[in-house]
Amino acid sequence: MKLIDGKMTAAAIKEEIKAEVEQMIEAGMKRPHLAAVLVGHDGGSEAYVKNKVIACEKCGFKSSLIRLEENTTEEELLDCIRQLNEDADVDGFIVQLPLPKHINEQKVINTIDYRKDVDGIHPMNAGRMALGLPSFISATPLGIITLMKRYNIPTSGKKCVVLGRSNIVGKPMAQLMLQKEHGDATVTICHSHSTTLKQECLEADIIIAAIGRPNFVTADMVKDGAIVIDVGTTRVADPTAKNGYRLNGDVKFDEVAPKCEYITPVPGGVGPMTICSLMKNTLSAAKKEIYE
Fold first, then answer.
1. For 134-167, what is each residue's pLDDT tens digit?
2. Residue 205 annotated as catalytic
3. How far apart are CA 235 and CA 247, in angstroms?
4. Which of 61, 77, 144, 167 is most enclosed, with most CB atoms within 10 A?
5. CA 19 → CA 6, 9, 245, 266, distances in Å?
6. How far is CA 110 from each of CA 14, 26, 269, 289, rounded to the nearest angstrom?
């Protein structure tokens, strides 16, 4: 069993990005600028945004954090997004999800300028990605594809099962694994209502678990020599932990790991790569590589 170290891989990629930013500055270009909008005080979102700000510093980016209160109206948030759309200094920005219940998430996503949508969630980017056209790719799936490439994991022709069908991970992940230039695999999507889920997993060479249920994937669902990518990050109460909780993956790591050829840990697997992908997308936005 080999552990896929997302933390180490992300650190190496950030160094590469930093070197590229330094070259851009020397060539007289402006420093890439990533902005983040955070509505309310959700603990998970706070931690995630903080990590993004730290990553920007490591990559040599300029970063801005816009904090809005929980009771911010939908129109106030949309106005904030329109201002970021118009701000020539901001290359890319993200609106941290989930949003408070009174705000229509899809309306917010639709208002983001797709040329600055470095999270890859605008319908323009999602659609172009599905068609295999140049686009900003959703950060977590891009991170997973990057990890597999860096570890030289063969995916072409392999049977890949994606657990979960969310717009942010499951669907784009399946699309990328299907595409010739990324995964070139045979892909099955399973979800909570799939009646043959266990059988599908047992036949899979690669399992990408993004179902949001702690310890969902157990040893009896995984064949020997499989590659298992765990996207799950559920907060589970843990009195022994400093902050009272620990992050738990969708895979029951201790019993599944011995059967795997490769597996990602939680934390330290996919998580750091998600933020790293956001940095890669922001660099692309600053260099106008995808949209002029």
1. 999 999 999 999 999 999 999 999 999 999 999 9
2. no
3. 5
4. 144
5. 20, 16, 36, 29
6. 29, 36, 30, 22
Q: What CATH architecture applies to the domain 27-113?
A: 3-Layer(aba) Sandwich (3.40)
Residue-level length of the chain: 292
Separation between Cα atoms, residue 129 and residue 136, nearest integer Å: 8
> What is the pTM assigned to this prediction?
0.94
pLDDT of the residue at 246: 86
Looking at 14, 96, 171, 252, which residue is catalytic? 96
- Output the six-digit token pair for 122: 């605008």
Q: Reply yes or no on whether 119 is catalytic.
A: yes
Task: Please tell me what DSSP assigns to residue 27.
Answer: T
The residue behind tokens 């909008």 is 37
Domain extent listing, the chain:
27-113, 139-270
Tell which CATH architecture fits domain 139-270: 3-Layer(aba) Sandwich (3.40)
Residue 105: partners with Cβ closer than 8 Å, 6 or more residues away: 97, 98, 99
14, 52, 252, 280: which one is catalytic?
A: 52
Please tell me which residue in 5, 91, 117, 119 is annotated as part of the active site. 119
Neighbours of 122 (CB within 10 A): 20
Structure-token match 């949508």, residue found: 117
